[in-house]
Amino acid sequence: MKVATKAYGLIDVDERQRITFPDGLYGFEGLKEYVLLDAQQQPFYWLQSLDSEQVAFILIDPFLFRPDYELDVSDEELLAIGLARPQDALVFAIITIPPTGAPMTANLQGPLVINRENHLGKQVVLTDPRWKTKHDILAELEMTRKAPC
Amino acid sequence: MLILSRKVNEKIMIGTDISISVIEIRGDQVKLGVEAPAAVKVYRQEVFDAIMRENRAAAESAPALPTIPLTKPEDTRGDKNHS
Predict the structure, then answer these.
(1) Judged by CB atoms within 8 Å, which residues 29-68 of B form the interface with A?
(2) pTM (2 decimals)?
(3) What is the phi/psi pair of residue A31, to 5°?
């Protein structure tokens, strides 16, 4: 299918890359249909809204820069997207790249969980105080490197 | 909207399995105790507001993606072979 994207203009996207967020994302509750794209630059992904070309989120695998990351989400909450087995879950953090040139940050408090079997997704809210809405990715990557193995 | 007043140590019940008790009142701050089943998520309003704000900021991100210096163990081995 043809998709109008914010990052790459009109492109051809496989139907299998389609993800539905039945509740939308916080602040974007009305937008439920997205496609998940590999960004041209690794290790990023784009979550592009199918309803609004101008709404697209940059995603990253949070475990890449925080190997100690963990999500404690209740089973009931995950059943909303039919997720019963951890191996079916894809986890992404949404990235903010401020236009001001301030450091790029990842939101580890409100990650996206996607059921790779049925392509349903949900933004979950974590209560663990370690996870904030703004984690400086490059700074924390540096800290991970310096930490003894 | 239901508006009611409670004194310290008094409770309100929401349904049959959620209770909110007033533990302490000091100046303009109220300490509340919330008892709810594990399946019921209880958050401060600010947490939702912060995530909503962050989503909006994320959607305004500069589309130019930066480079992340992710090196894998294989890369290090490659360097050694090279030298």
Answers:
(1) 38-39, 41, 43, 47-48, 50-68
(2) 0.84
(3) -100, 115
